[in-house]
């Protein structure tokens, strides 16, 4: 497997995904193979950060009051994969969104806001 691009999981303000060079399948979770066809070493790319809210859940109870409320989203990204992330509390299913990055619990995480 080739060297991975740095993304938010490594502290950089970016989202990466993989695309299979054999069948075109797009996947968010990094693997050494394509989950659709099994081809090895899918190509890694940076995402645009654009997407649409698929589902949303506003969390009003947490271990520490400093973190509530916060919104957890499933976002259908423009490149064809779905990811879970934090977002503005007023987001609704179907909203068009764009990612930025904010610190949360000591880590840099994707944070989606409505597209202006």
Descriptive labels:
116 residues, mainly beta, 2 domains, five-stranded mixed beta barrel, three-stranded antiparallel beta sheet, 8 strands, 0% helix, 44% strand, globular, DNA binding, NA-bd_OB-fold, Thioester_dehydratase-like, DNA-binding, DNA-binding protein
Secondary structure blueprint with pairings:
Elements: E1 16-19, E2 26-27, E3 43-46, E4 50-59, E5 70-77, E6 82-87, E7 96-104, E8 107-114
Parallel strand pairs: 6-8
Antiparallel strand pairs: 1-2, 1-3, 4-5, 4-7, 5-6, 7-8
Domain ChsH2 rubredoxin-like zinc ribbon: 15-41
Protein name: DNA-binding protein
GO molecular function: DNA binding
Low-confidence stretches: none
Q: Structurally, how many domains make up the residues?
A: 2
Distance between the termini: 38 Å
- What is the mean pLDDT? 92
* Quaternary structure type: single chain
Can you describe this structure in just a few lines?
The chain is 0% helix and 44% strand. The protein has 116 residues and is mainly beta. The protein has two domains: 1-46, no CATH class; 50-114, no CATH class.
Can you describe this structure?
The chain has about 120 residues and is mainly β. The protein folds into 2 domains: about 1-45, no CATH class; about 50-115, no CATH class. Helix content is about 0%, strand content about 45%. The protein is built from no helices and 8 strands. It has strands at about 15-20, 25, 45, 50-60, 70-75, 80-85, 95-105, 105-115. The strands form 2 sheets. The chain has a 5-stranded mixed beta barrel. Strands 2-1-3 form a 3-stranded antiparallel β-sheet, with no helix packed on it. β5 and β6 form a beta hairpin. The mean pLDDT is about 90. It comes from Bradyrhizobium yuanmingense. Keywords: DNA-binding. This is DNA-binding protein.
